[in-house]
Write a structure and sequence with these properties.
Blueprint (H helix, E strand, L loop, with lengths): L12 E5 L23 H10 L14 H15 L4 E5 L13 H27 L8 E5 L12 H23 L6 E5 L6
InterPro entries: HSDL2, NAD(P)-bd_dom_sf, Sc_DH/Rdtase_CS, SDR_fam
Pfam family, one: adh_short
Protein name: Hydroxysteroid dehydrogenase-like protein
């Protein structure tokens, strides 16, 4: 069970998403559709600012431990704390095993479970100290584990399910360590008709 908290109280979050970065000094006057290929981390930061929030776009390569550590260090340097991590970064290739080249498989594993692991490890020391929540929150975009999810995309599913396993395992760590104010959860977008 995830402890109850209000997002309005959260001041400092790291959102790791699969977006490229644009030069902030050369922004177009019109914000692209967030789902379009023209959307970037700078676009997301502008949307947050236009909604009254504050955002600092930081480019990160989740395949690089140094890059991930720099992301967390820059966040702490700017905001002095970290309350929430949202991991929505992902590499995708939906094809059968026979039609998934090894390089694509490796990219998905590096970005999906390995990138999440690197971000969690870098963020945990700061999330343990989170205030006002008394412990941080981690939100992961990863699926429930069910066999239909593997159909036609086994290589992709291996990494995404690995993310779900990390969610369950870290939640168990929190419980075993008595970290009652820490929480991790996975969400999976779905269409309801």
């Amino acid at each position: 069970m995830v402890p109850d908290f209000q997002l309005t109280r959260v001041k400092n979050a790291v959102v790791v998403a699969a977006k490229s970065i644009t030069d902030p000094s050369n922004l177009s006057p019109q914000t692209p559709d967030p789902k379009s290929p023209a959307s970037t981390v700078t676009t997301v930061a502008r949307e947050i600012a236009s909604a009254g929030g504050e955002a600092t776009p930081i480019q990160v390569d989740v395949r690089s431990e140094e890059s991930v550590n720099a992301l967390v260090a820059k966040t702490i340097a700017k905001y002095n704390r970290l309350d929430v991590v949202v991991y929505n970064s992902g590499a995708i290739w939906w094809a059968s095993v026979a039609n998934t080249p090894l390089k694509r498989f490796q990219l998905m594993q590096r970005v999906n479970p390995e990138g999440l692991y690197a971000v969690v490890q870098a963020a945990l020391p700061h999330l343990y100290k989170s205030s006002p929540l008394g412990g941080g929150r981690i939100v992961v975009v990863s699926p429930p584990i069910y066999s239909r999810f593997f159909r036609g995309k086994a290589a992709y599913a291996m990494g995404k399910v690995g993310m779900s396993v990390l969610t369950k395992g870290l939640a168990m760590d929190f419980e075993r360590e008595g970290r009652k104010n820490m929480a991790i959860t996975s969400i999976w977008p779905a269409v309801v008709s």
